[in-house]
Specification:
It is a single chain. The chain is built from 25 helices and 24 strands. By secondary structure, it is α+β, with helices and mostly antiparallel strands. The chain has 3 domains: about 180 residues, no CATH class; about 220 residues, no CATH class; about 200 residues, no CATH class. The radius of gyration is 33 Å and the shape is globular. The chain starts with a helix and ends with a helix. α1 packs across α12, α2 packs antiparallel against α10 and α23 packs antiparallel against α24. This is ABC transporter permease. Its main location: membrane.
Length: about 800
């Protein structure tokens, strides 16, 4: 029976080649887009899901009630970890993590390896299987390192790696370390990436801050015992915080005022491993909004839904040409369920062809998709039975939706009306109109969202950041010793186009080394708790970046006391509560007192997603600098950068990362938004094209139903333009209804998205007007093509037909 149905379905499809081709092309395009988008969502949701202890691993986040807002920090003080393990029940393991790209030397060759500096428990917490070595012993000694298989092959070829000695450049000095284990290469869905593991105690600043409760430098991760929940951990740690942070808590209470009454002002939260990838507070935050995977699924459903609507409309339109076949089958005793199954089988066969074509399209487009949208989807994801099961289930749901309704509609037709050629499929237009509205709601939402995202991207690109981005070159120092930095300064002095040189602990924007970070300090001042960002800089920092000095001056070698001087921004001056802070002194924690030598105008040293925080700039040893900023004035800045970069790499053979202009760095901060823009544009174009195809199919159906009416109107003297307007206005009403529904939905989505930015554009009403007009114009052009054809038809031929 099934084979017979398939044969009949195949025969009918061969007779209707145009119908089959349109449906297959439309459905395969939609399925291809849905597969790519759904796999993207699946990948984002399955990051870090391979860790055996994943359900018990958490990142520790600090929360402070400042009285104005709740401030979240992902860096913890080093003595806090051991105190937690000793004094808080249920904590099994802990580890800090500090990522770096470090030079490694073996023999005459040196390489850069992505490194995680961790504690001894790291391999006991996280599941990174070892090919050689034992996870219980691999990092127990300070001079031990663990390499991935790829890194071991790079260093030693095919020879045994365990037991060999390599040299690691730490703080400008080469130190010998012993390879204790070799790990399997890191899965591509891991947020924790490394080629080498090194004990955190080897970090150059570790000895200075290991006992500092007020210095928060690294993110902390814990593993709780089975049965211990995050909520119980957060509750049990409160007494410990009051024990070691009592002064800070008292200061915060004074700051918070009434909001602190009967509540904690400083507490810790445990962020589950499953949230590392998409939670903006996590150290491993991918830069993607939590809504991003759901956006992929929503777009998939919209695009496939629009294709299904087209499939339904084309199937119903095609039924007009099969009235004789339907009537004959019914008169010969065919039951409704047999007809339903027959028509559904034809839809199923079409969908099978579309699925095969969509898979081929997906395979061919996958490299381009990954490149354009910044993803890394690989075909090996189909080895997962859950993915295959999801695709198969989704496919059957689509065939039921796309083929089920037309089959059910045809199967229920009255046999007498069928034999007379009166299918009556258009009497109930509620479903048809609803489908049209849904199509254009999706299209208008996507068009509107695309416009708002484009506006925000333009705003980001044009927004004044408060510093010079166009003519300042950022050079990662890549472990260069102070002597090399001094030599670089001397060489740059010979360049006529170089106007100023400075250095910084942190980059501005996101450089080509991919590094970013911050340094937060907290201290007491006049019985208040002060929280500020700190930045180690070199001389001429404000001059090089063209920061506006509001009071005082920049750091200068002419003043010997600048070693204890600081330059602050407006927000810090306001937090100190002093009208003229120049010359005032304060003490940051246990450090020696510092005095303010200058105040600079607030500038966006972080992305526009964040508000400008208080900032304190200090002068320190050159070893604390990680970037050099070079200001140039030349008509050809690119050539200048190439010359400067060449000199730098000659002076520093360990240099790995390329230089970049600060305007490039700032644009890299918004890769997520650029990705959003591309996805919405692609989705909007697909939605509009497929919606137009569906509207065209319905127009064909309606014009066929109204051919006699059109003929009579022409005989009675109706003009072609009048007929076209008459036939089009019903469709345009539906599109206008879609616009009315879509506008508030698009506003809500974009309002929520813009909340991720502290600085953003306003959503203007005219965006939705333009999106609506565009949808109306597209709908009118689509329908008018068929309307004009019907209006130009010879009325004699229309009236002669029964």
């Amino acid at each position: 029976m099934l084979v017979s149905y398939l044969r009949i379905a195949w025969r009918n499809l061969r007779k209707q080649k145009v119908f089959a081709a349109v449906n297959i092309i439309g459905m395969s395009t939609a399925l291809c887009a849905a597969l790519l988008l759904s796999l993207t969502a699946y990948r984002e949701w399955t990051y870090d899901n391979f860790h055996e202890n994943g359900a018990h691993i958490y990142e520790v986040l600090g929360k402070e009630n400042t009285g104005i807002n709740i401030k979240t920090g992902s860096s913890m003080a080093q003595p806090l970890a051991e105190a937690i393990q000793k004094e808080v029940p249920g904590v099994k393991h802990f580890s800090f993590m500090a990522a770096d790209n470090l030079p490694v030397r073996y023999g005459a060759n040196h390489y850069y390896l992505g490194t995680q500096m961790v504690n001894a428990d790291f391999l006991k917490m996280f599941t990174f299987p070892l090919l050689k070595g034992n996870k219980n012993n691999a990092l127990q000694e300070l001079n031990q390192v663990v390499l991935t298989q790829k890194a071991a092959t790079t260093l030693f070829g095919n020879s045994e790696a365990v037991g060999k000695t390599i040299e690691l450049n730490l703080g400008g000095k080469w130190r010998p370390l012993i390879v204790s284990a070799v790990a399997v290469d890191i899965p591509d869905n891991s947020d924790i990436n490394f080629e080498m593991l090194v004990r955190l105690e080897n970090e150059p600043e570790y000895a200075v801050t290991k006992n500092e409760w007020n210095a928060s430098n690294f993110p902390l991760f814990i593993q709780l015992d089975p049965g211990v929940t995050a909520a119980s951990f957060e509750k049990n740690i409160i007494p410990l915080l009051h024990k070691y942070y009592n002064g800070k808590i008292e200061d915060l209470r004074k700051n918070a005022g009434a909001t602190a009454k009967n509540s904690e002002v400083f507490w810790l939260e445990a962020l589950p491993l499953r949230d590392f990838h998409l939670d903006e507070n996590s150290h491993f935050y991918s830069g993607l909004n939590k809504f991003y995977p759901w956006l992929m699924i929503i777009l998939s459903v919209l695009i496939v839904g629009i294709a299904c609507i087209n499939f339904i409309n084309l199937s119903i339109a095609r039924s007009f040409g099969r009235s004789g076949e339907i009537g004959l089958r019914k008169s010969l005793g065919a039951q409704d369920r047999q007809l339903l199954f027959q028509f559904w089988m034809e839809a199923f066969l079409l969908c099978c062809f579309a699925l095969v074509l969509s898979l081929l399209l997906m395979i061919s487009l996958l490299p381009y998709y990954n490149q354009v949208f910044g993803h890394s989807i690989a075909l090996h994801v189909f080895r997962n039975i859950n993915v295959v099961a999801g695709v198969v289930l989704g496919f059957f749901v689509i065939t039921l939706l796309a083929g089920g309704y037309p089959a059910w509609k045809v199967a229920r037709l009255n046999i007498l009306e069928v034999l007379k050629g009166k299918l009556g499929l258009g009497k109930s237009s509620g479903v048809r109109n609803g489908l049209i509205i849904l199509q254009f709601v999706a299209a208008v939402v996507l068009i509107s969202c695309t416009a708002v995202i484009w506006q925000q991207l333009k705003f980001i690109q044009a927004a004044p950041l408060g510093y010079n981005t166009s003519q300042v070159i950022s050079i990662p120092l890549d472990n260069a010793p102070p002597s090399v930095i001094a030599a670089m300064r001397n060489r740059l002095a010979e360049f006529q186009e170089v106007k100023s040189v400075t250095g910084s602990m942190l980059n501005l924007g996101l450089g080509k080394d991919g590094s970013s970070g911050n340094w937060t300090r907290g201290f007491s001042y006049k019985d208040r708790h002060i929280t500020t960002q700190c930045l180690v800089v070199d001389y001429n920092y404000a001059t090089t970046l063209d920061l506006k000095i509001l009071a005082g001056r920049d750091f200068s070698k002419d003043y010997g006391t600048d070693s204890t001087g600081v330059v602050i921004n407006e927000k810090m001056a306001k937090q100190l509560g002093v009208a003229d802070p120049v010359g005032m002194e304060f003490k940051m924690g246990d450090d020696q007192p510092v005095h303010v030598i200058g105040v600079v105008k607030d500038y966006h040293y972080e992305s526009l997603r964040k508000k400008i925080d208080p900032l304190v700039m200090v002068i320190n040893e050159p070893s604390a600098l990680y970037y050099v900023f070079v200001k140039v004035e030349t008509p050809n800045p690119v050539a200048a950068m190439e010359r400067i970069e060449k000199v730098w790499k000659n002076l520093n053979p360990l240099a790995e990362n390329d230089a970049s202009f600060l305007d490039e760095n700032t644009q890299r901060l918004y890769q997520q938004e650029q990705r959003f823009s591309k996805i919405f544009v692609s989705g909007a174009v697909l939605a509009v094209i497929i919606s137009a195809m569906g509207l065209f199919a319905i127009a064909v159906l309606v014009m066929a139903q109204r051919r006699k009416e059109i003929g009579i109107r022409k005989v009675l003297g109706a003009s072609i333009s009048g007929i076209v307007l008459l036939l089009s206005k019903d469709f345009l009403r539906l599109v206008l209804v879609a616009v009315v529904i879509a506008a508030p939905a698009a506003w809500y989505f974009m309002y929520r998205w813009l909340q991720n930015f502290e600085y953003h554009v306003a959503i203007h009403w005219w965006v939705f007007v333009i999106a609506g007009l565009l949808a109306v114009v597209i709908a009118f052009l689509t329908v008018s093509m068929q309307s004009v054809k019907a209006a130009l038809a010879n009325p004699v031929n229309s009236l002669k037909r029964d």
